[in-house]
Every structure is written in structure tokens, then in C-alpha cells.
Structure prediction request, 245 residues.
Amino acid sequence: MEDLLSRLRSARSVFVLTGSGISAESGLPTFRGVGGLWRTHRVEELASPEGFGRDPHLVWTWYNERKAAHHRAKPNAGHYALAQLETTIADFTLCTQNVDSLHLRAGSRNIIELHGNLREARCTRCDVRRPLDGAGLPLDELHHSCGGLFRPNIVWFGEPLPRAPWRRARVGAAQADVILVVGTSAVVYPAASLATRYSAKAYIAEINPEDTAISGRVDCVIRETAASALPKIVKAVSLNSRADG
Ligand code: OAD
Prediction:
């Protein structure tokens, strides 16, 4: 931990990759852990263009439930700590795989939402957007006037990542002095490769209560939850910055 703190104190550029684990302490389920979404739901039915083509009502019913859960949830101490860290680092990028908007609500600003978000639906034909409220999309409003269907504005399995966010993420990882990987099993590519493949010089720390696919390839492993570890780390870094100033 001391090594990580000293790297963070001198870092000019920090890149953070988060996954669903950071929102676990806000009451949202992860994907693959105990109670994880992909343990009880079929990913190909709910999170693929083919599944949406077969049954858009089923897909929207599920995403509307998730949207409602996101709306009820509140950012936790881990989200807030990252928003605080951003204010102390000159070049800070937060790249999340999450679509729950909790980083935004916690006050983070330079966010890359690699898998999109559930704040909007978009038309499959003309790409027009419409905002989603806390209840999601009414099932009788799936059709857009151009003839297309509204779909969640997120990236599904089998779809490429949107180019601009993916480029920004690679650049952020490449120029980072420190990379924090928080609450992700690091099994979904290409997001998982950001820390290990695209970093050029970074000291990499993983914050996760469990072992992951990249644990053996990082410089520092903190086996704690995000809401427990991140506030301590950020407090230690901020106190030191104030002392320096
Ligand atoms: P996973 O469910 O694969 O992994 C969640 C990780 O969070 C696990 O490694 C847990 O150990 C860890 N975890 C659990 N509670 C935690 C806590 N309180 N603090 C810190 N870590 C905790 O979820 P993701 O890695 O986010 O993609 O999954 C990546 C992608 O797969 C998702 O974005 C989604 C999914 O399919 C799409 O929908 C495209």
C-alpha cells in the first residue's frame, strides 16, 4: 500500500478502470459473482443484438428493471473517493464498464463509459437519442417514427466498442503513471486489456476482494472492497498533497 500511495502522490497522470464491483456496495449486483446477473439471466437473450431482434419487449423489460435499480441506488464511498481523487491529479481519466451512471452522480467529470449508459435509448435505424427517466422506456414507445426501434444505448456482446471512447481509453492507459483497476473480474475484452496491454509505464494496482484474471500481472493487489479501500487511499494522498502545498 505504501508503494501505491507514494506513486499516486507523485503521479501526473492517473487512469482508473472500474467494473460492476464498485457499485456492489450501492446494492447493485455484479455479473459473475454470487447473485451475479449472468448467473441467473441468459446473456445472449438480453445483451446481444440477436436477442433484441428476437424479443425487444423482453430485453426492455429487463433493462427497465435495471434502470429502476440504478435510479434507486446511490453512489457509495468508493465512487465519491474517485471523484475526490480527480480533483488532486492533473490528468485523470476514469474509464468504467458500468452503465449505472453512479460515477457521474458522485461528481466524476472525465469519464469514459466504455459500454455506454442507460441514460438514453437510441434508434437502431437513424441513431436518434431519447432520454430515459427512472422507469426506463415505456414498452408501447419502442418504435421510432423513422421505422427503427429504440434500444438501450449500451454496448452488447458481439458489438464493437464505440471508436472515440475506446481511443481515449487507450491513450489514457498509455500515458498513465498509475492505473487503478477496481471491481472488475477483467475477463471481458477489450476493456480487460487496458491495464495490462495498453499501459506503457504505469504502476498498476488492483482493488478487489477476490482474485481476478489479471491479479498475477499487476504491481500491487489490495484485497478489500472499493468502498473500504478507496477512501483510505484518497485521504492519504490528499492529506499529503495539502501538506506539500
Ligand atoms: P464481474 O461480475 O465479471 O466482476 C465483478 C468483480 O467485482 C469481481 O472480480 C468481484 O470480485 C468484484 N467485487 C465484488 N464486490 C466488490 C466490492 N465491493 N469492491 C470491489 N470489487 C468487488 O463484472 P465486470 O468485471 O464489471 O458488459 O464485468 C465486465 C462486463 O461484463 C460488464 O461491463 C458487462 C458484463 O457482461 C456488458 O454488458 C457489455
Summary: The chain has a mean pLDDT of 94. The longest helix spans residues 226-244. Residues 19-22, 24-25, 30-33, 36, 47, 97, 115, 155, 183-185, 187-188, 208-210, 212, 225-226 surround 2'-O-acetyl adenosine-5-diphosphoribose (CB under 6 Å). The two ends are 23 Å apart (CA to CA).
